[in-house]
Amino acid sequence: MKETIHSYDDLLRMLDQLLKEKSEFNWDQFYSDRERKIPFFKDHPDENLMEYMELKKIKAGKALELGCGPGRNAIYLARHGFYVDAVDQSAEGLEWAKERAIEQKVQVNFIQKDIFEMEIEEGTYDLVYDSGCFHHIPPHRRMSYIDLVQRALKPDGAFALTCFVQGGELGGADISDWEVYRRKSMHGGLGFTDEKLKGIFHHFTPVEIRKMRDLNSETEKFGTSALLAALFKNK
């Protein structure tokens, strides 16, 4: 790779590499052992997503899920009338998701790709959903992330995400954006508050921001107060 910056994209790639050099985390390895006691490995959708549907805060249409992993939320949306494009970089995670979709006889369009390399026609989706991807997005990629969501959504479309609570028990580094680059690390994922989310996503209208509800696996929903759940509308 030529280490010369000629463009904004070159700058982004340099910063990507700067953080990547210190990180040894591998998502394929993470998903390869399906028996690990990871709460969101169970095929249970997010409790907030289910509530949005039940209370009609979102309605069936076309959905894009960013960082779908083993597909639990994408499959839930497909079962409830959505046409779903679900994107993830991990081949292991997507293989698991495809197996689940086949078992449950639902159709989901799973895509293996970096979300920042996707070509999306403007105004395609009624819903963009992100469960646990955003807190792994480095600060220098946030503008690209916001542009992606805005481009993807129809007017008045919904954008929802779950992310680490700042200083939460599952993660959520309480450090500034500048400190990420001083340390060359995101410490497993950044933490957020409702005010931080409102500031970052000020291009959207906030509908609701709250902690997820703590739930056990017997409820067949996923929920933990270590994560924030946020719902926005496209302006």
From TrEMBL:
Domain spans labelled Methyltransferase: 64-157
Keywords attached to this entry: Methyltransferase, Transferase
InterPro entries for this protein: Methyltransf_25, SAM-dependent_MTases_sf
CDD domains on file: AdoMet_MTases
GO terms, biological process: methylation
Entry EC number(s): 2.1.1.-
Gene Ontology MF terms in the entry: methyltransferase activity
Protein name (database record): Class I SAM-dependent methyltransferase
Origin species: Mesobacillus jeotgali
Lineage summary: Bacteria, Bacillati, Bacillota, Bacilli, Bacillales
